[in-house]
Design a protein that fits this description.
The structure is a single chain. By secondary structure, the protein is an alpha+beta fold. The chain folds into two domains: 3-93, S16 Ribosomal Protein, Chain: A; 103-166. Helix content is 67%, strand content 15%. It has six helices and five strands. It has helices at 53-61, 68-77, 79-91, 96-151, 153-197, 203-213; strands at 3-12, 15-24, 35-41, 48-51, 65-66. The chain has a five-stranded mixed sheet with strand order 4-3-2-1-5. Helix 1 packs across helix 3 and helix 3 packs antiparallel against helix 4 (96-151). The longest helix is centred in the middle third of the chain and has 56 residues, at 96-151. The radius of gyration is 51 Å and the shape is elongated. Residues 192-214 have low confidence and may be disordered.
Length: 214
């Protein structure tokens, strides 16, 4: 029976969670498995990997073939490197003690890299949070300054002066319009009265008296 080390999807939509399992290569992805080796959570940064190192190494040594993603996980955790060193012992390249020493050195360097990455991410997160906090404080200060300037007594006096300055102009303009209209009305009334008071000459009567005298 051909066995594979692969991922079995769990979790919810857009928040996947994977079990690392050993299963028959003919079984469906989310079907029956032989043994569960660990858990892989890609939702964190860096990704969370909980792996049974010894059982994973055992299945690699007995010929289980990992999938591409499972191979990357096993390499990241050092399972494939440990298998390589053990195969070197069998070929006489080095002793078991040397292999263990080399693997310990590799593991320490790997852990230091992971620690540095976590520290870098944490510092970047702190800097981003600090920058966001400072930006919010500046926005609040700007809004408070605007409100204070609007509610200050000086601003109220300026508004009152502006209203006082604008109101007399409008009143004077309206008074001028009223005076002009009244003067025009008075002039038109006087002209009509003058026309009515001028006497008309009795043209017809004079002509008849002249005819009788003739």
């Amino acid at each position: 029976m051909a066995t594979k080390i692969r991922l079995q999807r769990q979790g919810r939509k857009r928040r996947p969670l994977f079990h690392i399992v050993v299963a028959d290569s003919r079984a469906p992805r989310d079907g029956k498995y032989i043994e569960r080796l660990g858990l892989y959570n890609p939702n964190t940064n860096p990704a969370t990997i909980d792996l049974d190192f010894e059982r994973s190494l055992h299945w690699i040594q007995v010929g289980a073939q990992p999938s591409d993603t499972a191979k990357a996980i096993l390499s990241y955790k050092g399972v494939l490197h440990k298998d390589f060193l053990i195969n070197g012992v069998g070929k006489g390249a080095h002793t078991l003690e040397q292999a263990e020493e080399k693997f310990t050195q590799w593991l320490e360097s790997k852990e230091s890299k992971i620690t540095n990455k976590v520290d870098t991410l944490a510092s970047a997160k702190d800097l981003l949070a600090k920058a966001n906090h400072e930006r919010e404080l500046k926005m609040k200060e700007a809004i408070a300054a605007k409100v204070l300037a609007k509610n200050s007594p000086l601003a109220e006096e300026v508004e009152e002066n502006s209203t006082d300055e604008t109101n007399p102009d409008t009143q004077n303009s309206t008074e001028d319009v009223v005076i002009e209209t009244t003067t025009e009305a008075e002039e038109s009334a006087n002209s009509t009265e003058a026309v009515e008071e001028t006497p008309q000459a009795p043209v017809a009567e004079t002509t008849e008296a002249d005819e009788t005298q003739k």
